[in-house]
């Protein structure tokens, strides 16, 4: 797959995945189309040798695995981990605001969002709605308005002359988006959702909305840009880029080894949930794959996890924010992330394995260490490694503007990451 083909496939995935629920649905659709069988955690599992399966939890996290042709106990499992969520603005439970002739919705900031870029964007709304049908049955339905229905207008510079000297965004007062003129005094979000659901699910009949998990998102589509088409600009590159690369690698693997892809929700808020990396989802699945505890421990000790989450590329306008010897560049290959305080789970052994894989498939590789006088972010790597006891390497594609409403990556890095992850899933020894 060429760099531009890989970038277009990623762009299509991002467009179809405005929320973690939609991302998990997109992953599930691709897995079904590739012959993976869906499992239900409430059922008894009967797994066939060499079978390919996937399971969803909370409609926002997914684990897919191929049992391979080899002996899992002696060869281990090759695991790739990523996350489906991204920083955004989530709608509050009672969000309606009628102020000065305008109808707005109150929002809560999800994760460590870079807030300034949210202003003056064409926003839409998507997520999951829990509703009751005419027969009293509950349904969890995904919704996506798709078209621009909201905006957060900036305050004119004439009314804030010092804005270019620094502007602290107040999440409570500055961020409620504007959706309409307030000429309908009884306008209600749940009624709006019910009407949209009837349009998207016409066969369901009348639906009464009980609750929801909704996120605003930028409707501007991904774009390949630059004089030489070097860059991919898009929302949610952190971390849908890694989810997509992991999926492509899983589908392209040769089936010789036992492989597993885990994409969990809630990484941006600490992963502590029943479907997050700090919850029991992966452990529950592994316990059902390997019911014997001794065999499970032995298998995990022969396994490796590649925790894939975007890395900070060196910004030409802010190069001093990087350690001088550890400034990853766009289009220069995946980045091994290292932190002596275990904010990343990389060890010399796992870093060496990843470097060797990159050499074998002729993919360039880089390193990132945060400046010693700055705090370091983290990933699902240390969480999963500490819960399972599995050897882990933290890596990611270099990126600008991480946690912005629109991030930037290199088109060649999309191809590079998919190529080395496929090699990892196919390698005989880890």
TrEMBL record:
What are its E.C. numbers?
Answer: 3.4.11.-
Q: PANTHER family from the xrefs?
A: ASPARTYL AMINOPEPTIDASE (PTHR28570:SF3)
Q: Its domain of life? A: Bacteria
* Pfam families (alphabetical): Peptidase_M18
Please tell me whether the keyword Ribosomal protein is annotated for this protein.
Answer: no
Q: Which GO terms describe its cellular component?
A: cytoplasm
Q: Which NCBIfam families does its entry note?
A: PRK02813.1
Q: Does the keyword Hydrolase apply?
A: yes
Designated name of the protein: Probable M18 family aminopeptidase 2
